[in-house]
Model the fold of this input.
Amino acid sequence: MWKYLLLLTLVACGCASNEPTPVLASAKPHAECLVCKANADLACVDVEVEKDTPSFEYNGTTYYFCSTECRDKFAKEPSKYVKK
Done:
């Protein structure tokens, strides 16, 4: 049970950044799809970052997405999705 609480705590703390960070040492890095987050599509917000995960660099930060469609929407208007 404590492992799940630790996992939930780590996930909650990791939501402040879109940079991929490992949740646990054995887990793959995760990020948030900002397009899905803006559209309240909670099923797709969490993105497991792998070498072929759609990404886009904006203002020196790499953002990851659940699909190429979301990446393309972000690329057209990144300021709409990035908090200032």
The chain has three helices and five strands. The chain has a mean pLDDT of 80. Residues 2-14 form the longest helix (13 residues).
